[in-house]
Design a protein that fits this description.
The structure is a homodimer. By secondary structure, chain A is α/β, with parallel strands linked by helices. Chain A contains nine helices and 13 strands.
């Protein structure tokens, strides 16, 4: 868990709405906002880990596609953290039309609601792992070309452009954080949320590790506490940059992740099942994080092996609890 | 009118669909495709100039939002030219949500239909005047940052990204032409289609010229025949570039356009009414056309004063016909 730090802004009494507040990032962020003194409402379809959400967070169960419910949640809010997505990156059955309707169109409706509700600022969870698409320049700076290979990525990019438009037309303040592959406690191993959670779950149960493609694709893994820190800083950042990468700045192959998980879980070498690669998977994704580290006090604080170890402990406890 | 030229590909028997075939660019393009030997269907809400459409063009009246009508039009087509937009650039009452629903979502439905119909290639009319947004680097190359200031521009950019996605996921060939400010015969002076048509119409009627802002904004005016030529070449281009600018490569201020129109219309100095500037208007837009001139035989053929003169003749004839 994130330790409240003098580098992070106090948000005493600031009314914050976390859209997608029942999810992996949402619960961590809502709790962190509470620790900084904010008055927090979390909105989402469902709350995967009810016991993990700070009891001071006001939980609103609702659908993103229900404008009345969203308007009710947004009323009186000062900062809106928008973490909702319509689809899952790389899902083979992804339909660009349905992603556009739920994610992008839903976001524009949210922005219209924020305008009416006089929300001051919106902080958007964009996707550093998908908006850039294939590139041979690493690490990837924010100014790199953006050629997403998934409906998820195109939707995230389109939302960034619409945020800039709403800022231009209506003065709505926004910041978009292009997040790398987040991992950590509360990430579900079952919902395609992340390869770390899925492989840890299998490893701790002694099951084979499933790997998409050859396992040689490289990703930038960033601990959820570091992602949350970036959102806290974006809540009060007032510099000129609207879009910033949030990652570790380093890359690990999926095979390396598998080996590190075997070592930390103490399983020895597990069977690996290699499945067909996915069209949405770029070969390498490593984010250049020099902008956010220059513009804010943010630094990735959680080293990979430490983060993986604490995540493994959480996952082991989760499995034990399920067995009881 | 475009003169059939050996530089342009013959399209004998090729089945072509022009989405938006009843509009300014659509009629010119459909007629040119006929001259190149194609079998042409034009689809649109309405046909502004029925007498101008070559009688060999099969006209289909339908709404873009009607998937059954679009599917019927797309059946058996080899190349689809997509010229439809949901909104008008810079319209003050623009709602990003409605533009997204009609233009972007409608286009994804069209792409799904094209996939089912086994269409080989889609050539998309993107917008060089709006996708880039403000910049201080002129002329603007295709690789420049894209930060649109209008819902129209964000929609065009999002469609380009979705075209790339459909190409990646489903193999649909596409080319996107980022067109500057097109002008020429058949452009309506009444539908915010272009400042040249609107000012010519007023000048020839001896009415004051209406100018948004100070008239010092600079635009890249390209004659409709040159735009049509670019579409013909994009129909068979098979090089590596998917997105190309189409403009004159030079800029004119709106005040300069007004003076040129006064000179060509022989009106002497007309009263100018300056209206409030529009949020969507970038100060300068001049496209770098070196990519398309390098990759294809395309060159802008129609010099500004010649194009303006022939457009003025057409507009004068239009006004006379209305008076009869």
């Amino acid at each position: 868990m994130l330790i409240a730090n003098t580098d992070f802004p106090r948000l005493d009494g600031t009314r914050c709405l976390v859209m997608g507040g029942g999810g992996f990032l949402g619960v961590h962020l809502a709790n962190a906002l509470i620790r900084q003194g904010a008055v927090v409402r979390a909105f989402g379809r469902s709350l995967a880990n009810p016991n993990e959400l700070d009891e001071r967070v006001h939980w609103s169960c609702g659908h993103f596609e229900d404008p009345a419910a969203v308007a009710e949640a947004a009323r009186g809010q000062e900062i809106v953290f928008h973490l909702l997505s319509g689809s899952v990156p790389g899902h083979p059955g992804q339909k660009p039309t349905s992603d556009l309707e739920t994610s992008v169109l839903g976001t524009l409706r949210l922005l219209d609601i924020c305008n009416v509700a006089a929300v001051r600022r919106i902080v958007f969870a964009s996707s550093g792992g998908t908006v850039y698409g294939p590139t041979d320049r690493y690490p990837i700076p924010e100014a790199a070309p953006t050629d997403p290979m998934s409906a998820y990525g195109v939707g995230k990019l389109a939302i960034e452009k619409y945020l800039a438009l709403y800022h231009h037309l209506y003065g709505l303040e926004y910041f978009a954080l292009r997040i790398a592959n987040a991992y950590g406690p509360l990430q579900s191993p079952l919902k395609r949320q992340g390869v770390v959670a899925a492989m840890l779950d299998h490893a701790l149960a002694g099951k084979p590790l499933e790997i998409w493609g050859t396992g040689e694709i490289v990703r930038d893994f960033v601990h959820i506490d570091d992602v949350v820190s970036a959102f806290l800083l974006a809540a009060t950042y007032d510099g000129p940059h609207r879009v910033m990468n949030v990652g570790s700045g380093t890359g690990l192959s999926i095979n390396q992740v598998a080996s590190d998980i075997e070592a930390i879980a103490g399983t020895g070498h597990l069977e690996r099942i290699y499945r067909a690669g996915r069209a949405a998977d770029v070969p390498v994704n490593i984010l250049d994080i020099s902008l956010i580290t220059r513009e804010t006090p943010w630094q990735p604080q959680c080293a990979w092996h430490d983060g993986l170890r604490s995540t493994a402990r959480w996952m082991a406890a989760r499995q034990s609890a399920r067995l009881v």
